[in-house]
Every structure is written in C-alpha cells, then in structure tokens.
TrEMBL record:
CDD domains found in the cross-reference section: Cyp158A-like (cd11031)
Single GO term (MF): heme binding
Originating organism: Streptomyces ficellus
InterPro entries: Cyt_P450, Cyt_P450_B, Cyt_P450_CS, Cyt_P450_sf
Name under which the protein is recorded: Cytochrome P450
Source domain of life: Bacteria
The keyword Metal-binding belongs to this UniProt entry's keyword annotation: yes
SUPFAM superfamilies: Cytochrome P450
Length: 404
C-alpha cells in the first residue's frame, strides 16, 4: 500500500515550487506510474524533453480523458467534453482555426493601450489610498477580468455583475462548489447566452462579435461553441492570469526583494523577467497542467511503455525545474535569457492567450515597480489566505504597504 506522500497530488507543493518528489523522479524515474487520490493509477512524466514531446503527441488524447466513463484522477481539472482544451484533432484543429485569428500577436498588440489604461486607473486608485491595500482585489483580479469583459464586449454597466459571477465560476472545483459558486456559474451561463444573441443581432468591435463572424469556407462556430468558448476565456484568461500575477508579486516581495529593486532600477528588464516568473512561480497546485490524458495507443517514452488506455499526467512545473534545460533551475533569475519554459503548454493545446497573458503581466509589473519600488507585505506571510481548491495556488488576499 502506498504511503500518502506517494499518492498524487503530492503534498508539499506551493507557489514557490513543486513538491520534492518531482526532483527525485526526474533523477531516477522520469516516467513513473503513481496512485492518485481518485483511486486510478496514472503515468507521471517529469522531465522537460519527455513532457514537451508528449504534449505534442497525437497518441495522447484529451477527449478520452473527458468523455463518459473516463477515469477520475484526484486533484486534476475535469473539463467538459465540448471545451477546446478537451478536444483532439480534427475537431480541435477546426475550432482552433476559427478562433486563432482573434489571438494573434498583432491583434493583442492593438489592445495594449487599452490594457495600459485599465492598469493605470487601478494603480491610480491604489496610490490614492493609505495602505494597506489588497493587491488581489485592487489589481490582480480586476485587470484581467476587465480585459476579458472588454474582449467579450460586456457593457460597462454589466461589468460588476459579470465580475461577481466570473469569480464564482473560477473558484468552482471538486471540493469547494458551494451554493454561491454554483449560482454564479448558472448566472454567468445565462448571461453569456444572452450576450452571444445580442452580439449576433448587433455586432460591435470586440472579440466575441469577431468570433460570431468568423468563417472558414462554409464553417462557423455554433451557438454552443461560442458560449463554451466564453467560459474557456474566463477560466483561462482571467483566473490563470490573476493567480500568476498575485503569486509572482508575492514571490518577489517576500523572497526576492533584491530582484524587485533590480527591476525598479531598469524597467526594460521586465519582459525577460516575466518569462522567468512564468517558469519559476508554480501556478498549478497539482504541478501538472491540470489536464489528464489517455493513451490511444502504446507509447514508448523514458525507457517504459505506456499502454493503450492508461492515464497520463504531464508535469509542467517539474519540466520547468529540469536542470538539464535550465541551469540552476531552482533559482529565480530574472535575467535568465535562454528560457524555453513550457508554462503555456506545447503542441496541439499550446495556449491561445499566451500573448495577452504576457502583456498583462508586463504592464502590471511595470506599473508596480515604477510607482511602488518599496512595496512590501503588510502581514506575515503565514497569515496570507489561500483558496483551498485543487487546481491553482490561489491567493484570496495579498495585503501590501509602501512608503514610510
């Protein structure tokens, strides 16, 4: 019988890094079968090259992990079968082709001035207050949420309700559903259905209207696909960015104040620093991408055979700490130039929103180090509240102060 410490998800993972088991597995058993909290054994893949290769391997199926009768693996995200992150090709390729135009680097760069304006207004409000200020409520949540609202064309008058429902949706998980969260989920669903109908009748200059109009020859997105994509955008584009920003600021002001000051001295260093924060700061509580896969065929990798039908977990957090790829991998080095991190995934499900996430991180950090070079925690770190969900390391509050 396995010891609790050997059951996935392993205890000991924090925003600072993955649980200690991963380093041992990378060294001795890079592809290892582990029992999971859901009662199903799964192959855990921990080295960078293997994780990257399998992320792009069509023999690993996301759809089989999301369909009826799929194994329940404790501590992983169980998405609905119609979401783009749940699809295999050719269905995934069809959907991605229709929506990819809305996420190009050029399209995202056109949003920069608008994102900067939102960030400046939030930081103006923060600067006008006498601390302590909750950075989660003041910046980490409202910045990406306002941006997603604008992408979907949510009218300004509806943004407050949209924010409340979206936050409830983002915190739904196996252990913390709760009546309030489920009610928020229902309200958000109803709202997005109405929003799609409204944009179809009266298109405006926003991403949702663009997606409604998207065509690939005679192909188009169905009503259900549009609504589902709205949910995906909120979960991936809002919650993930909010958590990454809050956790990154915490890492800098709690553990790496010298590097925070180093950024403040020369803000041109921020784009390279963001890549290192994406690599080093551990977002996923399970240390994987949160998404299990099922082998559709036998696969040889890392000296073992993954059999057809077996569940597979790819650890992005472990891959990002692989010393064969990242020298001194456990050290946060904001000047790290060669940084092929895999935080946005790889292959078929490479994150569509990567350009937007990077831009929001850069703008937020630039504003913070410029205005608050002496930003620091207002409470002891062990008093910070974390959401007890199974997917992300989520700070629910980050009280900070600055000045004398």
């Amino acid at each position: 019988m396995s010891h609790a410490a050997d059951v996935f998800p392993f205890p000991g993972s924090t925003y600072r890094g993955p649980a200690p088991q991963y380093a041992a597995f990378r060294a001795d058993q890079p592809v290892v079968k582990v029992p999971t909290a859901g009662g199903v054994d799964a192959w855990l893949v921990t080295r960078y090259e293997d994780v990257r290769a399998l992320s792009a391997d069509p023999r690993l199926s996301r759809a089989r992990a999301c369909g009826p009768g799929a194994p329940r693996i404790g501590g992983t995200m169980h998405t609905t079968p119609e979401m783009i992150i749940s699809l295999d090709s050719p269905e995934h390729s069809r959907l991605r082709k229709l929506v990819a135009g809305a996420f190009t680097l050029r399209r995202v760069e056109r949003m920069r001035a608008g994102v900067q304006k939102v960030a400046d207004e939030l930081l103006d409000d923060m600067q006008a207050q006498e601390g302590p200020v909750d950075l989660v409520q003041q910046l980490a949540v409202p910045l990406p949420l306002t941006v997603i609202g604008e992408l979907l064309g949510v009218p300004a008058a509806d943004l407050r309700d949209f924010e409340k429902w979206a936050r409830a949706f983002a915190t739904v998980d196996d252990r913390a559903g709760g009546e309030e969260s489920l009610n928020g989920l229902a309200k958000l669903s109803e709202y997005i259905v109405g929003l799609v109908a409204d944009k179809r009748a009266r298109p405006t200059d926003d991403m949702l209207s663009e997606l409604i109009a998207a065509r690939d020859n005679d192909d188009r997105l169905s009503e259900q696909e549009l609504v589902t994509f709205g949910f995906t955008l909120i979960g991936a584009g809002f919650d993930t960015t909010a958590n990454q920003l809050a956790n990154s600021v915490l890492a800098l002001i709690a553990d790496h104040r010298d590097q925070w000051r180093w950024l403040a001295e020369d803000r041109s260093r921020i784009p390279v620093a963001v890549e290192e924060l994406l690599r080093h700061v551990n977002l996923f509580a399970t240390d994987t991408s949160g998404f299990p896969r099922i082998a559709a065929d036998d696969i040889e990798v890392g000296g073992v055979t993954i059999a057809k039908g077996d569940a597979v977990l790819l650890s992005l957090a472990s891959a990002n700490r692989d010393g064969d790829v990242f020298p001194d991998a456990d050290r946060l080095d904001l000047a790290r130039e060669k940084n092929p991190h895999i935080s946005f995934g790889h292959g078929l499900h490479y994150c569509l929103g990567k350009h937007l996430g990077r831009m929001e991180m850069e703008i937020a950090l630039d504003g913070l180090v410029r205005r608050f070079p002496d930003l620091r925690l207002a409470v002891p770190e062990d008093e910070l509240p974390w959401h007890n969900g199974e997917i992300n390391h989520t700070l629910t509050s980050l009280p900070v102060v600055w000045g004398a």
